[in-house]
Design brief:
Distance between the termini: 27 Å
Oligomer: single chain
Strand order of the largest sheet: 1-2-6-5-4-3
Order of helices and strands: EEEEEEH
Strand content: over 45%
Helix content: under 10%
């Protein structure tokens, strides 16, 4: 019998476009003051803005807090919907 991985919830809480709390985060792939790229339970999430900072990162719990001016949040890879995600490096070296 095949064991299925339980899909965790993915939650985004954005307050006044200045503070973002994210759960269901699998990995932080890159970040700088203009862009943060998160791998979440629901696909890749690109956050763009100005003066962005990752204040709290707890990958064991899948939580990330970001501050700065958040201008946009865009999901890609959303068609996988909870399937076991492969890391970016894993996809590069297939």
């Amino acid at each position: 019998m095949e064991e299925q991985k339980a899909v965790k919830n993915h939650r985004v809480l954005l307050v006044n476009r200045k503070t973002g709390n994210f759960s269901g985060v699998l990995d932080v792939l890159s970040f700088d003051v203009g862009e943060v790229l998160l791998e979440t339970e629901r696909g890749m999430l690109t956050i763009k803005g100005e003066d962005l900072h990752v204040n709290r990162l707890t990958l064991e719990k899948g939580e990330v807090d970001i501050t700065g001016r958040i201008d946009s949040m865009v999901y890609t890879d959303g068609g996988q919907n909870g399937k076991n995600h492969e890391s970016v490096l894993g996809r590069l070296f297939r």
